[in-house]
Design goal:
The protein is of the alpha+beta class. About 40% of the residues are buried. Helix 5 packs across helix 7 and helix 9 (about 345-350) crosses helix 11. The chain folds into three domains: about 1-105, Gcn5-related N-acetyltransferase (GNAT) (Aminopeptidase), CATH 3.40.630.30; about 130-280, Aminopeptidase (3-Layer(aba) Sandwich); about 285-380, Nonspecific Lipid-transfer Protein, Chain A (2-Layer Sandwich). The strands form five sheets. The chain has a seven-stranded mixed sheet with strand order 1-2-3-6-7-16-8, sandwiched between helices. A six-stranded mixed sheet has the order 9-15-14-13-12-10, with helices on both faces. About 25% of the residues lie in helices and about 30% in strands.
Length: about 400
């Protein structure tokens, strides 16, 4: 049986969290307990008899896609009690959740996987979420700070929040999968400087066209001080240079700077030797019609797509996609397709993570590659990126 979680399930859920995540937070403390209770409205549980066996949470998280805010859902907190594992509970929760989202007209579901191959079986597609680096601050100093005086100054968040938000949204709409941070579900802005579960200090630095949230870190194993760039954004080329010069100006105080850069950052081409494991998240098309409704096309065209989706039968079939500058309409129809592909490849093309040529060379699609190019161009050149602060 699957049903929404309630406060009566809290203690059992805490037990499963402790077993699954090695989470030994003291949830008798009112603040921590209130944080869990605030998540319950988004949770669903699979039960054996009356006992909670497995749980999953589906958070409504508006995100940017091709420059527009789109209703998406973040899948998180998926766990199963050790004694009930390998009985199909997570699979059942995923299908139940996708069916509910489909009925609501939600087009996309994102998640950070514990095992990407597990979720790939059910139609989730991994996309590159930028590249993580650990950079010597001296390198940045020599490249940028010696010729540019940093403009960022340390400020408090509350009196500057409106300015910081404006910079963030101008930056965020350039990427796919960036959160709106609207505070409706998660207190993203409230927790930017100090989250209740994290006692480490963070500092906000601000200029007219850029900001940066820095978290000091002592790497005791390497006996060095690191600056973790927890969040940042800029609105102009000069703002980008200000950020790079500011990070270089940390030389002398911090030996290294840890930062995740989006795939379109030119500096990434010069930093191969400092790259850490690439971060990623996974995207899932919940409903093809709703997913495509997030886009517009600069040209009018009609495309027939044969999509295969073994997990969500409502996405499996031939769809006629009518493109126009006013929007995109999708109709299921029995006709010969121009292009055939699976739902994961379609997600990667639409999310800006896969080119039509790469998909064709890898054998991920069959038919007219020109149609695949038209689909890939709907993302308007935007690449996937989600800041570390927005991990869910």
């Amino acid at each position: 049986m699957i049903r929404p979680l309630s406060e009566a399930d809290l203690e059992r859920w805490i037990y499963i969290r402790q077993a699954a995540y090695q989470d030994f937070t003291d949830y008798r403390e009112p603040g921590h307990r209130a944080r869990l209770l605030s998540r319950l409205p988004y949770g669903y549980g699979a039960f054996e008899g009356t006992e909670l066996a497995s749980a999953a949470f589906f958070y409504p998280l508006p995100m940017y896609l091709a420059g527009r805010l789109v209703e998406m859902v973040g899948l998180a907190g998926v766990l199963t009690a050790p004694e009930y594992r390998r009985r199909g509970h997570v699979k059942a929760l995923l299908l139940d959740g996708l069916q509910r989202l489909h009925q609501r007209g939600v087009g996309w579901c994102l998640e950070y996987p514990f095992d990407p191959f597990y979720y790939a079986k059910y139609g989730w597609q991994s996309v590159i979420n930028g590249m993580a680096f650990s950079l010597p601050s001296q390198l940045l100093y020599q490249a940028f700070t010696v010729r540019l005086r940093p403009q960022l100054k340390r400020v408090a968040l509350e009196p500057t929040l409106t300015q910081v938000q404006a910079i963030y949204h101008a930056w965020a709409r350039r990427y796919n999968g960036t959160l709106s941070r609207d505070e409706a579900v998660r207190p993203d802005w409230s927790n930017l400087i100090r989250a209740p579960w994290d006692t480490r200090e963070r500092h906000l630095y601000l200029a007219a066209d850029a900001y940066c949230v820095l978290q000091p870190h002592s790497d005791e194993a390497a006996d060095r001080q690191e600056a973790i760039i927890y969040d940042y954004a800029f609105t102009s080329p000069q703002g980008r240079l200000n950020l790079l010069a500011f990070w270089g100006n940390l030389f002398g105080q911090y030996e290294r700077v840890r930062v995740t850069l989006p795939g379109d950052e030119p500096l990434t081409r010069e930093l191969d030797e400092f790259i850490k494991p690439t971060s990623y998240f996974q995207v899932r098309i919940v409903d093809i019609k709703a997913a495509l409704a997030a886009f517009t096309s600069p040209v009018a065209a009609s495309l027939a797509l044969a999509v295969s989706d073994d997990f969500c039968p409502w996405n499996d079939g031939v769809f006629v996609v009518s493109l126009s500058p006013q929007g995109i309409a999708v109709t299921a129809r029995d006709q010969a397709p121009d292009l055939s592909l699976d739902v994961r490849t379609l997600a990667a093309l639409l999310f800006g993570d896969l080119s039509a040529a790469t998909a064709a060379n890898a054998g991920l699609l069959q038919g007219d590659i020109g149609v695949a190019r038209q689909l890939a161009e709907l993302s308007a050149g935007n690449r996937p990126f989600m800041a570390g602060h927005d991990y869910f």
